[in-house]
Each structure stands twice: as C-alpha cells, then as structure tokens.
Amino acid sequence: MKKKIAMGLAVMITALLTGCGNPTMPLAEVFSQEQLEQQTKQIVEWLNAEEYEQVYETFREDMKEVLPTEELKAACEETYGNGGAFAQINDTEVSGQKIEGEDYAVVRVKAQYEKQIVTFQVGYDANMEVVGLYMK
Description:
Elements: H1 2-18, H2 33-48, H3 52-56, H4 61-66, H5 69-80, E1 86-99, E2 102-113, E3 117-125, E4 130-135
Antiparallel strand pairs: 1-2, 2-3, 3-4
C-alpha cells in the first residue's frame, strides 16, 4: 500500500515538495502566509481526528485521483498510527516555488505525538487547493 501511494504521489508532487532543482523563494503575492499556516494546521487536526473526507475536499481534482480517502487513511495509520496521542505543533515553515510558470506554496509542519514527531508537507496551488501531501 505504501509503495502504491508513494509511486502515485511521486509522479505528481516530487517537483513541488522536494524542489527538484527549483530553489525555494518568497511566497508569491497570491498567497497569504497566515492563511497557508492556518489551513495546514486545520488539515493536521482533521487527520488526527480521522476526518479524511474533510482533508480530501481540500485536494485539487488531480490529487483526488491520486489519493482517495481510503489510501489517505492507510498512509496516516502507517506513518503515525503507533505514535500515540497528538500533543502539539512544534514548528511551521512556509516557502514558495515557481514550477513551469505556476506559483506554488509548500508548508511544513512538525507535529509532536507521544512517541514520535511527524513532519507534514502540504503543497498548494494559487487557488489554495492541495496539490501534494507528504508525511514522514
């Protein structure tokens, strides 16, 4: 299951979340850092509450095809299912990227659980739709 998710997501979001040779840059004017941070924290809250459908509704159409709610749930269980209760968000980082002329934003959130720290990376397009979600 993890391989399938990784392969599907890799095709669509590798360039966005890893930079793929594109240096991170300041956010484009179309984005609000505060809104990006709030939305990403909300996504982490929904994931912790197992409200996968809420998260799914934030996805852009191509992302919905790549990561249906069942696979999102499985990825969460595999990544931090044994991590214990959620405690707090420790750190948030926001950066911008331009890929093929399009503006994107990437938000990294480090979340503390009882037994582990999980880093969530969420990529957004200029319409604030999620185009990438990575957890480790």
